[in-house]
Amino acid sequence: MAMPSQRGEARLSAGGGTAAGLAANLVRRIDRLALPEAALVSVTLAVPELAGLTRLPAMADPWSWQRPSEGLALIAWGCAHSVAPADTAGLAAAYHGLDWAHLDADAGGAEPVAFLGHGFGGPDALDFPPALLRVPLLVLRRRGERCELILSHRGGVAPARIRAAWGEALEDFAQALAAPPLAAVPVLPRRVEEIPSPALYRQRVRAATQAIAAGRLEKVVLSRRILVEASRPLRPERLVEALVERHPSCAILTAGVDGRTLVAASPERLVACQGRDVGSYALAGTAPSDPADPFLGGRLLSGAKDRHEHRLVVEWISEALGGLCETLDVPAAPRRMGLGRLEHLWTPITGRLKPGAGLLQAAARLHPTPAVAGLPLAEARAVLAELGETRAGWYSGAFGWIDRAGDGEMAVVLRCAVLDGDRALLSAGGGIVAASEPEAEFAETELKLGIMLEGLRRA
Ligand SMILES: C=C(O[C@@H]1C=C(C(=O)O)C=C[C@H]1O)C(=O)O
């Protein structure tokens, strides 16, 4: 544990060195390297001494991604390059336009990474930018046993300037890692606003089922959000810690945008790529899981309404991804994915990409899936607009990372909150099909909101 002491003396671990010592050591290693030349330059250093310290430290506007079940953590610090395109297509253009040179100083084989995120499309009630691509100044990456620091900087400037910027960032980052965690006083956030009101949400579910019965569309995903207030500022890094512990199979992500922090524990993979292997999750159909009632999940698997809702998503993803793939594997029947108090129907879809196809191309085709929008998409968007629904803070958009070689993953932003001081705005929704009932749909959103509400008690 870090010992409280003066700046520069803070210890990274009981037996380890000081934060200042680590930073000085890394700076010496960087000084010996000949930096590559390009518009964007990166260097990766192995840092086994940080392997036990890949928790998100307290910082302003944190960007991070963790998949604890895969032993993956990416913690960013600062910004070397950022682009704010108008949409997902713009994200792909921004990424492919990067002139990015890299020096793998310890021959660990790892590529430098960029983070990216975007909203659902259309107005964002929190005015989050439609899309962002960011190459951080530093990324601490842990993958299994390996731990590395990736440093990036805009090229075309004197190497001494780059080294100075990295040196300063390394010092600050090491200090943040060594800072002792703040006392864990539990908070009880209370609801201060519900948008729409519970009664209006039920009414929207009814209106949606009527539009479906009238033959306008097959499915539409409605959502609601709640604003909660705590008695003191909420801390994203503590919320992340709680989510990592409770939902290790999810993608736990943060994106700091102008002092507000989006935090999510998403069970839904929009797309993941490794080489030409690609995968996406169809996730739709939800029920409470009750350990005392093992048959409940069985009912989810055999229930006609949820199976129908799920099948629509499987077919749509198979078609969207299939167009980019040489081979596609779609399991014949869904499985159950358990997430604490609820569970989903889940079909992991995998394939082999055609040459030239990649993660961002797949992401642009897959977003928004009928798991968060509806079918057909244009009619679903029209119904959402008629019902007056808006989404906020990238909820039901996507967030993830991509490395220089094109490997990476994006998750659908679900089970999320935007933290702003002592307040947090939580969003959740659910798919409405012909057989949906207002009360059950409302209860489903409450279950989904429960994941963040529970985490926030420890924020
Ligand atoms: C829309 C959300 O979740 C999506 C909708 C689901 C459903 O309708 O059953 C299940 C998982 C997600 O794909 C949400 O969590 O807000």
TrEMBL record:
**Alphabetized Gene3D superfamilies for the sequence:** Anthranilate synthase
Which Pfam family is an annotated match for this chain, by its short name?
A: Chorismate_bind
What keywords appear on the UniProt entry? Isomerase
Q: Known catalysed reaction(s)?
A: chorismate = isochorismate
Q: What class of enzyme is it?
A: isomerase
Q: Which domain of life is it from?
A: Bacteria
Residues in Chorismate-utilising enzyme C-terminal domain copies: 200-448
What sections of the protein cross the membrane?
Answer: none
> What's the EC number here?
5.4.4.2
The family annotation for this protein states: Belongs to the isochorismate synthase family.
Please give the name of this protein: isochorismate synthase
Q: Origin organism of this chain? A: Phaeospirillum tilakii
Q: Output the lineage of the source organism.
A: Bacteria, Pseudomonadati, Pseudomonadota, Alphaproteobacteria, Rhodospirillales
